[in-house]
Design a protein that fits this description.
Elements: E1 3-7, E2 10-13, E3 18-25, E4 33-39, E5 46-51, E6 57-59, E7 67-72, E8 77-82, E9 91-98, E10 106-107, E11 111-116
Length: about 120
């Protein structure tokens, strides 16, 4: 059974950092693209980043240079390292899996990130 489980969310002050984890089971993350998304209350879900099976990474313009996504094949886990978090960025952060960085088939339950000013 394919499952994705996010963790690492919490409360951070503006300008701070967090590392989110996306632990996969039922498939090998190395063979898939894993995207990170976020959705704030009243707003549409937006893609934050993606790492494909080749290890290439893509970021939205807003997080470029502040967020980094990486993959630990031994742990079958993908990470989202978030630096310089801004007070406009609290949201539920989700990871999702796809064959490429589009048309995501599997989703996790999300982890809440709260940023205090």
């Amino acid at each position: 059974q394919v499952q994705l489980a996010e963790s690492g969310g919490g409360l951070v002050t503006s300008g701070g950092s967090l590392r989110l984890s996306c632990a996969a089971s039922g498939f090998i993350v190395e063979n898939y693209a894993i995207g990170w998304f976020r959705q704030a209350p009243g707003r549409e879900r937006e893609r934050v980043s993606c790492i494909n099976s080749s290890g290439n990474t893509y970021y939205s313009d807003y997080v470029e240079g502040r967020f980094t996504t990486s993959r630990d094949n031994a742990k079958n886990t993908v990470y989202l390292h978030m630096n310089s978090l801004e007070h406009k960025e609290p949201a539920v952060y989700y990871c999702a899996a796809a064959e490429a960085c589009s048309l995501y088939d599997y989703w996790g339950q999300g982890t809440q990130v709260t940023v205090s000013s």
